[in-house]
Predict the structure of CDP-diacylglycerol--serine O-phosphatidyltransferase.
Amino acid sequence: MRFTKSIPNMFTLGNLFCGFLSVGFAANGQFNNAAVLILIGMMLDSMDGRLARMLKADSALGKELDSLADIVTFGVAPSFLVYYTYFFQFELIGLAIAGLFPLFGAYRLARFNISSGKSSINYFIGVPITAAGGIMAILTLFGDKIPNIVTTVIFTGLCFLMVSKIRIPSLKEVPLPKYGTIVTLFLGCLLFLLYKGTYGQSPYLIYIAAPLYIAYLAYRFVKGKHNKDID
């Protein structure tokens, strides 16, 4: 039982480890791998909360750990990616600008943590740091096809949108089987393309995380269908 209660935290720590590895890959010039690790972090982040509720393992420790993991994987790691792929040419100023991303993200997370009990499940206040970090990772993957100025504008916009008071629709009320299928197809196609293009060079964590995520969504799909049949 104690091990079961710790499963969500293991996924959260996996998310944090992805952020750390992403920074390392970015520093070594392997930008595609760094971006993919952020996307894997998103997959793990989408699972830990649901697993905690499913296993009835919600805890204050898990919530704090989740925030710490998010600031690394979706705040620090994307900022390093942007710095090494574009802002490096501005030297110290570029490093300072890249550092704004985790600062705004940390503020957004702190604000969410103290107001989550009062906020609606139908929307988020400001862009979630997970979404912002994922967008920057995807932009980096297709960086050779997107002008640097576009990436810079989106980077700046996301910084301010994270701390804005704009209401962003939440997907929490979207049935997981339907939403999960879309996510699985998207990530499956993306990881397949990366696998074909960087065979033997991608982090081995991809081959663990992707099947694990798909298996999790399949389980949720079957469980949701079973519950519908009972109703």
Observations:
- Strands lie at 123-125, 167-169.
- Residues 173-179 have pLDDT under 50 and may be disordered.
